[in-house]
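### Sample
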Amino acid sequence: MEPLCRHALGAILYSALTAYELGLIKILPMSLHLILDGLGGIALAASPFLFGFSDWVYWPHVLFGLFSVAASLVTRMETMLPTGRREPA
C-alpha cells in the first residue's frame, strides 16, 4: 500500500477515536490528535525520499504532508461543554 493511502487510513482511524465533534469513540484527547497529525505530516512529506521513489513522484506527498503539519500548528482548541456546545471565549 502506498504511503499516502496508509497515512489517510491512519488519520481516519485516530480521528474516529478522538474526543471531538466527529469522533465516534471519544477516547483520545484533541492535543494528541494534533500531535499525530503533525508527526504524520512530517513522515508523509519525507516518505518519497526515505523510501526511494522521489524520482517518480514526490509533490503530492510533500504538499499534503506540509499542509498536515501547518494545520496541526494553527488549529485552535476550545473546551467542549458536556452539552456538546463550545465554551464561550
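Residues 30-50 form the longest helix (21 residues). This sample (SPW repeat-containing integral membrane domain-containing protein) is used throughout the tutorial notebook.
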